[in-house]
Design brief:
Helix content is 51%, strand content 2%. The chain is mainly alpha-helical. The longest helix has 24 residues. The radius of gyration is 22 Å and the shape is elongated.
């Protein structure tokens, strides 16, 4: 037993020494132009998805209405589209320089739950360039963006452009004055998207 313990202790010390030598030697290239290797990519993606799934389980999802989807497209265009692909538009220069590249949200919207999309949008993801929009935006701003992302997989270039054109005056980043009158703010969404205690799951099914 002592021999096994001693072997494990020596192995751990050797692994630690190797790790520290890599850290301090500068041999690892941190350039964003150099892609991650397959092992690093698997480790980061697996860790991220497991972490998001665990924490999103406590999110209470409001009813994502068509009105919320329409209200979210302008914020999506302002907050998300420069780094993520969207129908008919190429990723902007900043998004092309990210490593790892930001995912196509039309695909993410199809396989991530609304709770997971919300958690990522609010909290961001470390070491990816994905910001935590919850630091500057409240739920009344974030849930419409999430609602729009759930509709994104169903849009092509024409329908995305039409939705964007018809959304003038809606959303947090949109112009507040349209056709000579003042648009109503989104305060009416506050009650809809107000966060409930984590244990209250009466408003949705599992």
């Amino acid at each position: 037993m002592k021999t096994i313990f001693g072997t494990l202790l020596v192995s751990g010390a050797v692994a630690l020494a190797i790790g520290l030598s890599v850290v301090y030697s500068g041999v690892y290239n941190v350039s964003a132009l150099v892609p991650h290797n397959e092992s690093s990519t698997w480790l980061m993606k697996t860790t991220m998805h497991a972490s998001v799934e665990r924490r999103a389980g406590e999110v209470v999802v409001p009813e994502l209405t068509p009105a919320m989807q329409q209200a979210g497209i302008n914020d999506f265009e302002s907050m998300c589209a420069s780094c993520h692909d969207r129908p008919g538009k190429k990723t902007d220069a900043m998004g092309l320089g990210l490593n790892p590249r930001a995912p196509d949200l039309a695909k993410s919207g199809a396989h991530l739950t609304p709770a997971e999309l919300y958690w990522i949008t609010k909290n961001g993801i470390k070491m990816t360039g994905m910001p935590a929009w919850g630091a500057t935006h409240g739920d009344a701003d974030l849930w419409p963006v999430v609602a729009f992302m759930t509709e994104l997989p169903n849009l092509d270039k024409a329908s995305y452009g039409a939705s964007l054109a018809s959304a003038s005056g809606a959303g947090h980043h949109a112009p507040q004055e349209v056709s000579g009158h003042q648009e109503e703010p989104l305060e009416h969404l506050e009650e809809t998207v107000e966060e409930k205690p984590a244990h209250d799951h009466s408003s949705h099914d599992h």
